[in-house]
Amino acid sequence: MARRRATEAAQESLVAAESTGRARLFRLTAAPDIVRATLDDMRGFMSGAGLGDDTCGTAEIVLAEVLNNVAEHAYGMNGTGRIHVSIRLDGSALTIHVTDNGAAFHGLRLPFGQLPLLDGSAAASARDLPEGGFGWFLIRSLTTDLRYERRGQTNHLVLRLRTTRATPPLPPLDLA
Amino acid sequence: MDLCSTRHGPFHVITVDAPRIDAGHAIAFKDAMRSLTTDGGDHVVLDLGQVRFIDSSGLGAIVAALKHMGPGRRLDLACLTPDVAKVFQLTRMNSIFTIHQSLDDLAPRQAG
């Protein structure tokens, strides 16, 4: 009973925030074209709400990685799973709440997101270069809070990003 | 995935005519790069000036293209837009590639 009241309160709060342009709920099917179109819509919403390009770009990277992860692993690329994403602006942070009815995370825990380590030496064989494993590293390094909960048949992922200096200090690009 | 191949002096420039290289495009991108680079120059420059977004799948596909080139051949990157540069920097994969600010930087030095 307390949980239902908490959920209703959260929904009322979201509806109230939506009416002031500070939040929006996106509902989508987990298929690549739809994810791509929704990311454009999300970016438009964030930019329209006054967030700068750096913050919007960082948020889009996080959202893309999370949505791709849901499509691929929660729904096994079936192309039909439903995802709900609420994006809310609160002071100096973006709070993103992603729910889906797909498979739970293994062990009910989020991946650690270890960056595939590079040897660092110029002599390292190109064959050893990692082609994957970057997704959770990107999500973890760009979010300040990341929480996962499984409630019944639903996955709930809540993330927060700062809206001021959203991107952590980056190593230099080192242009030729 | 639209890739456009041109020569720029000694360089083989491949321009990606798409705004995103992402999970939905990664395989098509890898296949197209494989076709374009199987025979061809030892020094390929991937012009990403039109690409405003890549995700981790896109990054992986670009690394795969590099691996396909094989030893003795180079794949450089050029014209990275801000969000694309961000992904390379965050993952430290910018250290794997020579990155050119613009294609003008590729102009061969003229004899004086």
Rg of chain B is 13 Å
Strand order of the largest sheet of chain A: 1-2-3-5-4
Number of helices of chain A: 4
Number of strands of chain B: 7
Main beta sheet strand tally, sense and closure of chain A: 5 strands, antiparallel
Low-confidence sequence ranges of chain A: none
* Computed Rg of chain A: 18 Å
Please report which band the strand proportion of chain A falls in: under 5%, 5-15%, 15-25%, 25-35%, 35-45% or over 45%.
Answer: 15-25%
Judged by helices, strands and strand pairing, the structural class of chain B is alpha/beta
Give the CA-CA distance, first to last residue of chain A.
62 Å
Distance between the termini of chain B: 41 Å
Rounded average pLDDT of chain A = 88
- What's the helix-strand series of chain B? EEEHEEHEHE
Overall mean pLDDT of chain B stands at 92
Helical coverage of chain B, percent range: 25-40%
Major sheet size, sense and barrel closure of chain B = 5 strands, mixed
The chain pair forming the largest interface, with residue counts per chain, is: A-B, 39 and 39 residues
Question: Can you offer a commentary on this structure?
Answer:
The complex is a heterodimer of chains A (176) and B (112). Chain A is α+β, with helices and mostly antiparallel strands. Helix content of chain A is 37%, strand content 23%. Chain A is built from four helices and five strands. In chain A, strands 1-2-3-5-4 form a five-stranded antiparallel sheet. Chain A is globular, with a radius of gyration of 18 Å. The N and C termini of chain A lie far apart (62 Å). The mean pLDDT of chain A is 88. With 112 residues, chain B is of the alpha/beta class. In chain B, the strands form two sheets. In chain B, strands 1-2-4-6-7 form a five-stranded mixed sheet, covered by helices on one side. Chain B is globular, with a radius of gyration of 13 Å. The mean pLDDT of chain B is 92. Classes of the chains: A alpha+beta (176), B alpha/beta (112). Chains A and B meet through helix 2, helix 3 and helix 4 of A and helix 2, helix 3 and strand 7 of B.
